[in-house]
Every structure is written in structure tokens, then in C-alpha cells.
């Protein structure tokens, strides 16, 4: 990447304003490679320079990719007047302008979410044409049946304008617990699919996106940065049971 102005780079890496960055520079609180910065116009190379602000080293990166274990009661949005959002849960040291959830989970649904400021990546992992699966565990109010699995594999017609959903995979984990893999993301899709089979979803938890599983070490509400290797797994394609059915 091309070097850019220090004040612009730091403001883009955080929720700070460029005025705040300039004030800290004047106070001698910003160093690059151990040398106090004298001008906010100093050029910064993302890959080569070590930047410290008020004694804390910054991890500079042009794009941010976070995995979060979403808790219940939190909405998948950047802002909401009535409820906390997944972006609100991002710790201060990782916050920056432009963060948004790549996709959504219902307010009462828990599990894996990706929060980023990279719109292109979000499109790749969410578009049905990308064949990136999302895997869930669904607890039902009745036993999982072979008939449900057959109907999921065939594609279930849903009430409303969407029509029939794409084929999905359903596997019995326990008597009332099913693993479901989707290749699309209609509104309340899993709940509506099970409702069409005469069952109600009691709990819903997303456990993987692409080939990347949710980190079992993340407590509800916690997040961490993805590694480069995990970014590859996140975008892993799997054409699944929808091959040959118009996807």
C-alpha cells in the first residue's frame, strides 16, 4: 500500500478524530519507530513503521477482520436506539470507523459473526453465488426426523415473496438437536423451514462460516482478530446439495 499521512492513517485505525491525533502529536505522545512525530503530515508505511500512541503500540492494518461469539439479546447492526449491537461489543482497542457485521443473526440467535470494514469480503462470504456455507445448531421442541432432512434437502417453499429456499443439509445430533448447513440467508430462514415441518426452534447457534469454526475459547460477547489462515477458511466454497439446481 502507498504511504499516507499519519493523522489520516491513525484516525482511520480507530474512533479518534484527526484533530485528536494532531493534538497528541503536538503533545509529543506519538512516536514512529521510537522517534517523536513533529508533523501530522508525516508519511506512514503500514507495513514497515512501528507506531506508539501514549505508550501503547498500535497494530496497523488496512482492513480489520474480527470473529465474535454473539450473545443473545444483541442485534446484528452498527447502531440501534433500543438495543446493544455487535459493534458496541467490540473492545476499544479494536474499534475503528466503518466496522459492520458481515451478515446478521436474529436478536435471540447466538454464535459466530464476522465484523469487518471490508465490504468486498462481506459480499464474497454472503452471496449465494459464492457457495460459502453457514452451519448452525438448532434445538427443537420435538425430535428431529428423517422426513425433515429430506424436505430440507429438497428445498422448502416458504410463505412470502421469497418462494422456495435452496436445498439445505440437516443432520441429527441428538434427539431434538440438529446441525443445519445453509447456502443462503433469508429472513428467519431456519426457523421458518422448521416451522414448515411442524417444529419450533427453541435455540439457534451458528457454529461455522465457510470452513472456519467458531473459536470455542470465545465467551459470549467476546471477539478477536482473524489470522490470515482463518480468512482463507472463512471464504472456503462448498457447492453442497444445491449443485445442479440453478445456483
In words, what does this structure look like?
With 247 residues, the chain is of the alpha+beta class. Helix content is 19%, strand content 27%. The protein is built from six helices and 17 strands. It has helices at 6-12, 18-26, 119-126, 146-154, 189-196, 228-234, and strands at 4-5, 30-32, 35-36, 43-44, 51-53, 56-57, 65-70, 100-101, 110-116, 134-140, 157-158, 163-164, 169-174, 177-182, 201-209, 212-213, 223-225. The strands form four sheets. Strands 7, 8, 9, 10, 13, 14, 15, 16 and 17 form a nine-stranded mixed beta sheet that branches. Strands 3-2-5-6 form a four-stranded antiparallel beta sheet. A hairpin with an 8-residue loop joins strand 8 and strand 9 (110-116). Helix 1 (6-12) packs across helix 2 (18-26). The two termini are 36 Å apart.
N to C succession of SSEs: EHHEEEEEEEEHEHEEEEHEEEH
Number of strands: 17
Terminal CA distance: 36 Å
Q: What is the overall shape?
A: elongated
How large, in whole angstroms, is the Cα Rg?
22 Å
Largest sheet: 9 strands, mixed
Give me the secondary-structure category.
Answer: alpha+beta
